[in-house]
Amino acid sequence: MIAIVLRRLGSILLVMLVVAALSFLIFNFLGDPVNNILGVNATQEEREELRRTLGLDQPTWVQFWHFLERAVVGDFGISYRNRQPVMELILSRMPATVELVLCATLLALAVGIPMGVYCALKPNGVVSRVLQMIALIGISIPQFLLGMLLILVFSVELRWLSAFGRGEVVTIGWWSTGLLTPSGRMALIMPVLTLAVFQISMIMRLVQGEMQEVLRSDFIKFARARGLTDRAVNLRHALRNSLLPVVTVVGLQIGALIAFAIVCEAVFQWPGLGLLILQAIEYADFPVMAAYLALVGFGFAMINLTVDMIYLFIDPRMRRK
Amino acid sequence: MTRAIASLRAAIDSDLAWRFRQSPAAMAAAALLLVMVVCAIAAPLIAPHTPFDPATLNLMDSRLPPAWVEGGMLTYPLGTDEQGRDVLSTIFYGMRISITVGVAAVCLSVVIGVTLGLVAGWCGGWIDAAIMRLGDVQLSFPTIMIAFFIDGVAKAMMPPDLREMTRFYVVIFAIGIADWVQFARTVRAATMIEKNKDYAAAAKLSRVSGLKILFAHVLPNTLGPVIILATLGLGVAILTEAILSFLGLGMPPTQPSLGALIRVGNDLLLSGEWWISMFPGLALVLLVLSVNIFGDWLRNALNPRLK
Questions:
Q1: Minimal-distance CA residue of chain B relative to A285
Q2: Contacts of B181 in chain A (CB under 8 A)
Q3: Which helix (H) or strand (E) is A192 found in, with range?
Q4: pTM (2 decimals)?
Q5: What whole-number distance in Å separates Cα of residue A63 and Cα of residue A57?
Q6: Inter-residue contact A169 to A176 (CB < 8 Å)
Q7: Stretch 42-81 of chain A: residues touching chain B, C-beta under 8 Å
Q8: In angstroms, how far is CA A130 from the centroid of its own chain?
């Protein structure tokens, strides 16, 4: 088991090294750290002086090492556009995105799993057929289009919800949350729904498929033969065993959600990391791009690691291998 | 001539064609796809207006609703956008660009993936390990994220005039690079099986060069699954392009794909002009859906395990 964990850590280290190298390339070679700090009006001597103090006259690998040292403590320099430390900027935008992604994931699990279980138990019922139809549409419609449809219906036609922004937010320490105010919660509805519909559909189809498979297996027949109640057979035995692949897929999907959050944030003008990176690209703000890449890479690596660990924890067969 | 007819008859009688006739969903998807591709190719001939010729545009006709809504005009069946361009015509031209970018990006992924997969499977050893590790690293990121980053960095790097000119190729490159791993994995696995078969050994004994065995004999035997993956990948590529263009990172407004048209319409959504974004959106959904349904059918039809 320790060997598996170590091998996993090794591959994650490799991923992080590649990500850090790319981030370093963007930061050092595309962006110009000297112009970044001094502005374009500085004299040649001032530039040389700063070049030396920043260590830019040293070999590339030494610079890379210094970049890593600074990146580990979250120092990615100063944003070209906002003239603010990049890390401060990212931390101020992160709560909006994290809240969006977490709410969407929870909603997807809370709705998708029961729907999948229902469809697996009654595959030929009318309700199941309707749900399956909805799920098929859900995985086929692009997210940005769904978001625009929601805006069209609920903001333009019915005028129930605001089409952009987070509403009122409450700040707790450095974290800002929209969950504590009525307008903040209202503002969450459409973006979360937009992000979650694809996940709901996918989780539903996955749970249904897995559970139908498990329900046919011998140990379920045996459980029924022992005289266990339907509820115990379905939920304690069948559902538990069908959730294993769901863990993997949900983990990977949280990663994809971070990517799709960019689209969602663009549709709803949601002031999160996605809008930040879009603006950074628009204004060639390389320090922000480098930091975003490093952060997202780290996030993906951590999610993958967590999924593997959960797998080891819930599936004893994995530990024995 | 008779030979051509004979081979045509053989194709119609084949197993695959029979399966195709058995599946109404696949036939409907293929028919829809065919109509859309023809519309896209023949756009200059059949589009009612030429939306990218400023001389024919009339600003008086801008923001007209579809013909069946009050205030709409029959000459613009799906309405016009803010510049007075006919929405139906822009959709035809938009599909042209969406399909071209999608197909080109998938071709690029296939070329990169198949080549690397063949090399990895044939050589083995550290070359194999290096290529597959690189693939693992890339797979730990979603495809859309990789395409987004390549495209974004390229956009931020270039001066504005160069940006406009190279957009088309940059988008193809970004999407193509992001999706090669699945092809490499499939082809590598197939190559490792094929290279140990008798025909490869026979070719080796008759002193055919390694490169020739690899590309002339092994490659054709690994292509079956590649065709399926490429069909399914086409849907993803078209959608990825639409997302990039929607975010303002893909095709420019002067050369709009379906995604870029939706982006333009998105700004006008709040004033109630839904047709400018929703019709290109519908075209995109139908296009991706028909590609996916056809790809799913092809996967099931060609999968020997399901026969």
A1: B156
A2: none
A3: helix A182-215
A4: 0.84
A5: 9
A6: yes
A7: none
A8: 29
Tokens linked to B138: 């890339």
Tokens of A163: 């089409």
How far, in Å, CA of B280 to CA of B276, rounded?
Answer: 7
Instruction: Report CB contact under 8 Å: A142, B248.
Output: no
Return the H-helix or E-strand segment holding B84: none
Identity of the residue numbered A75 = D
For residue B221, what are the contacts with CB-CB under 8 A and spacing of at least 6? B190, B194
Q: How many angstroms separate the CA atoms of B147 and B85, rounded?
A: 30
Rounded distance between C-alpha atoms, residue A217 and residue B196, angstroms: 37
Interface test with A, best of B243, B249, B278, B292 (most A CBs within 10 A): B243
With both helix axes pointing from N to C terminus, report the angle between A286-314 and A273-282 in degrees, rounded to the nearest 10.
150
For the record, the structure tokens of A182 come out as 């009525």
CB contact under 8 A, A18 and B137: yes
Q: How do residues A212-221 score in pLDDT, each as one tens digit?
A: 888 787 887 8
Tell me the ipTM for this assembly: 0.80
Place B111 in a pLDDT band, splitting at 50, 70 and 90.
very high
B175/chain A closest Cα distance in angstroms? 15
Q: Is B125 left (phi over 0), alpha (psi -120 to 50) or beta?
A: left
Distance CA A56, CA A27 (A): 12
Question: Is B269 in contact with A300 (Cβ distance < 8 A)?
Answer: no
